[in-house]
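To whoever is covering the structure queue this week,

Two jobs came back overnight. Logging them here so there's a record in the thread.

Job A:
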Amino acid sequence: MRWLCTIGLLVMMGSPVAQETPPDADTRPVLRWAVMPYPPLHIREGPMAGKGIVDSYLHLVMAATPQYRHVREEMTPARAWQLIRSGDNVCHPAALYTPERAEYTLFSESPALFPSLAFMVRLEDYRTMFAPEQSVAAQDMLARTDMRLGLVADRSYYVFIDELLKEGAVYQRASVLSSLHGPLSLYRMLQSGRIDYMIEYPWINRYMVNTIRAPEQHELVALSIKELPQFAKGYMACPKTPWGAQVVAAVNRWVNEQKPTETNRQRMAVWLDRNTLPRYMRAYEEMIAPVTRP
């Protein structure tokens, strides 16, 4: 009988009713952050793990809002927006504004400026073929037969670019690689001269050099695509609920302190190529805030 009593006591101790809440339990409300494993926005592996572009903002926001218990959850963008739309206590740390999203989302003040997709070329080719121009029309670039294009299979580059790729056998002329290792392989092909340009974000070179430790035989520069806005504001986004309004208000206090600082402007600047950097520095003051000089 003694062993039965012992078992009964253990069961009671392990049950939710009998178990007491530890005095040091964290009772703060949980704030779940949707993290998409898309480097270099979020980097989860290697020597730069946790030091991605959005990672840097998210770490600081977490530290500035200690009233919440922050939890990072990996998920797809589609899943993140589904949860926000349903009113779950989930926030997106690097969202782009759209009128449709604004119907069910509260957006913070913008702390960051993101460059758009561009044509990435080797610096020496830029100097001989394009300089001093810093942008080119997509149709003109894709129509060139003297430059070899590299693409990632099944990737959408923007609807209008996708349509251009279908015209004039552009896709058939390109080197098309699988999506699993496509960006890295194309980067290496561009460095080795096997292709002459790729469609990517301007931070691709710094990411490959800093994170992948890929050899940098050639400096890459970005040619902006004329049909696209050069930069877009990035926001932190939460559900349009009383809970979401409280989080956004707390985030905005941090954002408004950061916007006029050179430190905040540099969080993206350090990732950019020589063509994009001066335009970004000017656009930041026009679109985010004038930077206060010491």
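Job B:
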Amino acid sequence: MKQKGDNKIDNNISTLQYYPIALDVKCKNCLVVGGGSVGARKALTLARCGAIVNVVSPIFSDEFTKHIIDKQKIINSQKITDSHNFISKPTTTENKNKIDSSNIVNNQHRLIKCIQKHYDSNDLNSIFLVIGATDNIGVNRQIANDARERQILCNIADFPEGSSFVLPSIVSRGDLVITVSTSGNSPAFAKKLRKELELQFGEEYAIFLTLMGNIRDWLLSKKNLQNDLRDKYSQVLPISQKMNSNIFRELVNSELLENIASGNYSEIDKTIKIILGKYLQPMDNISLPSYQDFISGE
């Protein structure tokens, strides 16, 4: 027998067109087809996530080249002055698919390799994920069909019907990643929402999450002290999952974010010491790190 409200739950589930997921592409071979600005953005996002990226296109636009060079400087703090260092060309006109690896400089550090050639289905060999970003409808459809036959994850720009997934708009603040998707119905509206969120969420969120992660690691390391302290205390307060939950609930509901945004370091230190000290008081041989210590990971 159905319970009251079951229909409402079923209706909500049926309207969800895509399954939201955060995908780990680190060290995965990914392909971007297209040498324009869209292809550059897709390649750079994949590289930021640790993917090994090949970009295939018969022509790489000036905008693509500039975008890749400028952004790669930021990603890797590495000066790149010659676009030919990362665009590989066939060594002969007779064999256009043969790649001169000597033209690929430090590719393993930059994670992006650009290959100047027309797309063909062999480009999908050993590929985990492919993104089609060309202005040629026929090529885009071929990519979609080839990927479907090989059961490879595929996204075609402006063609959600031929894609196995859609790409949301992204707001990134360090480890905080907020995505906005309209399920392919209105990329313009997703972009508008993204811009609004970028104003709402500042860089203090990145610092805050770094702080939370380092405090978490520090607490986990202190679990090893429990055995050492059993002889000193008749009862030792364990650093349990429940305690962790209580600590982080208080930290995230404190004014840490506001104080990070304003640079009020004395208040940040005070908040950390009060909250951690309350739960770790029985372990009086534990020295609580300062905010700067937590941020630096020391």
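Note for Job B: The chain is about 45% helix and 10% strand.

Please reply-all if you pick these up so we don't duplicate work.
Q.
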